[in-house]
Amino acid sequence: MPLAAVPAPTAEARATGRRGHRPGRPLSPAEAAVLRIVADARTPVFVTVREGGGRRYSYWRPLDSTTGRGGCYAALPTAECDALHAAGRITLGEPVTDPARTTYRVTAVRTPPAAPARAVRPVRPLRDRAYAA
Question: The whole model's pTM is what?
């Protein structure tokens, strides 16, 4: 059961070779904070979809020994997570289905680094050479 349909690439995206469905606007501070948590490989993030369609994005917050905070599950804002999913910034993994809910692993979409520009050797001028006849 997909959460949201991601639109097909437009003709412009196919023509320019741009990958993904990235919005032209920058991320909000809340979206950036969510994406930072999801992108951290040490913090597994999951979304639980209930039978009625309700969704809850959550992760395990480890215990911070200096502040004594953490050691519990923490919920992420659903609106920001849904916006990131609709924009193609996060993806859902394989479903694990229970009778009352379905759980997906949430991961950040990794874009490949841009290929480095090829170094072009300067063109040397041709030297006038005298050829023996």
Answer: 0.63
